[in-house]
Design a protein that fits this description.
This protein is of the alpha/beta class. The chain folds into 2 domains: 3-64 and 363-402, Roll (Urease, subunit C, domain 1); 65-354, TIM Barrel, CATH 3.20.20. It contains 15 helices and 16 strands. Strand 15 (392-397) and strand 16 form a beta hairpin. Bound molecules: N-(iminomethyl)-L-glutamic acid and fe (iii) ion (FE). The site of fe (iii) ion has 5 residues, from loops.
């Protein structure tokens, strides 16, 4: 049976001016979970007589929101470090003293699959309440073969418990685990020779990420990991140029990265490199805000080079404990100077591209997956403008209306 969404004002997020202008009252016909036809209400569109109708009552319908960068799976919390930072210590000092990412690693290693799932679901519900229908989830708090795969399995399991589509990213190269202290190349061997092959073989990862930074992995180690990813048929992403300019983004571009993320310290050469490779620039204003960073990502250069910009929560316990994607639209505009149109595209069409899904998600267009968010607002700028007002009307995933 078909489903029709009727009386919807569409913001399709297709390329071009039209993609941001709300349409007159329209109808979307859905067949087998895909968009089959789109047109104005008065135009007769062929659909099944038995089609089920969902009346959108003139509300605004966007593509389902996509949070393309999260670290949703973890145990414990780090409010103590938040206090330490406000008492003068830096994020780097805390990590170097064995805290930071490593404190979450200790907690996450101890936790079972069920415990990690139970901890993740309320956070996921926060994202869902901000209109999200697809998320990316990274590993990176396990740092052993077994614990990294455990995290990826929990991420895969989320869609058994909520109406959510999940892309998984292996981030074994998040930081050096204590048992490899002073042996970082040996840990990179483990990643390349065991963790990536296992994740690929068991289809647990859709992509491979590396934290390329002085407190993460250097350029030659990052390149070895990218090469191994490609050998196993997996695309790459990078946490690059977050705290300094090492050239990780240009390296990622050389390996046709889906996205480079954070990129506050990205320079003109890096922008040129990612423009050439068609890599998405993923902006993470929650981490910028929470770490009280001063260095802004090079928005003007990215615009001038026509680099697609995505926007995501980076939800994690250390640098962005925010389970709400609408907050990132507001922060993207207020902190980084994005326009509300750029912010909306950042969580729809460009977020889809950052996950390698630009042909199937992130737009309201024939042939695309029937994932939508219905909003109780008049104009799309309201998505970036207000925060905390309950504007979500409902989500539709694979053509099914979800009552969250
Ligand atoms: O995206 N930059 C590295 N990783 C995370 C932070 C993880 C943590 O502090 O637990 C980030 O900011
Ligand atoms: Fe991150």
């Amino acid at each position: 049976m078909n489903t029709s969404l009727i009386n919807a004002r569409l913001v399709t997020c297709q390329p071009g001016y039209e993609g941001y202008q709300p349409s007159p009252l329209s109808k979307v016909v859905i067949k087998d979970g895909l968009i089959d036809a789109v047109g104005p209400m008065e135009q007769s569109i062929e659909d099944d007589d038995q089609s089920l109708s969902i009346d959108c009552e003139g509300k605004l319908l966007t593509p389902g929101f996509i949070d393309c960068h999260t670290h949703l799976i973890f145990a414990g919390q780090r409010s103590n470090e938040f206090e330490q930072r406000l008492n003068g210590q830096s994020y780097q000092d805390i990590l170097n003293a064995g805290g930071g990412i490593l404190s979450t690693v200790r907690e996450t290693r101890k936790a079972s699959h069920q415990e990690l799932l139970d901890l993740a679901l309320p956070r996921l519900d926060g994202l869902i309440s901000s209109g999200v229908t697809s998320i990316e989830v990274k590993s990176g708090y396990g740092l052993t073969l077994e614990d990294e795969l455990k995290m990826l399995r929990v991420a895969k399991d989320l869609s058994q418990h909520r109406a959510i589509k999940v892309s998984t990213t292996l981030l074994a190269a998040h930081t050096l685990p204590p048992e490899y202290s002073h042996r970082s190349d040996d840990y990179v061997d483990l990643i390349c020779e065991e963790i990536i092959p296992h994740a690929a073989e068991h289809r647990l990862a859709d992509s491979i990420d590396v934290f390329c930074e002085s407190i993460g992995f250097n350029l030659s180690q990052t390149e070895r990991i990218f090469k191994s990813a490609h050998q196993h048929g997996l695309p790459i992403k990078g946490h690059t140029e977050q705290l300094s300019n090492l050239g990780g983004s240009a390296l990622a571009a050389k390996y046709s990265a889906l996205s480079v993320d954070h990129i506050e310290y990205l320079d003109a050469i890096g922008v040129e490199a990612i423009a050439r490779s068609g890599t998405v620039a993923t902006l993470l204003p929650g981490a910028f805000y929470f770490l009280n960073e001063q260095q802004h990502p090079p928005i003007e250069l990215l615009r001038a080079a026509n680099v697609p910009m995505a926007l995501a929560t980076d939800l994690n316990p250390g640098t962005s404990p925010f389970a709400n994607l609408l907050l990132m639209l507001n922060m993207g505009c207020t902190l980084f100077g994005l326009t509300p149109e750029e912010a909306l595209r950042g969580v729809t069409c460009h977020a889809a591209k950052a996950l390698g899904l630009s042909e199937s998600r992130g737009q309201i267009a024939v042939g695309y997956e029937a994932d939508f968010t219905l909003w109780d607002i008049q104009s799309p700028a309201e998505l970036s403008y207000q925060f905390g007002v309950p504007i979500l009307s409902s989500r539709i995933v694979d053509g099914v209306r979800i009552n969250d």
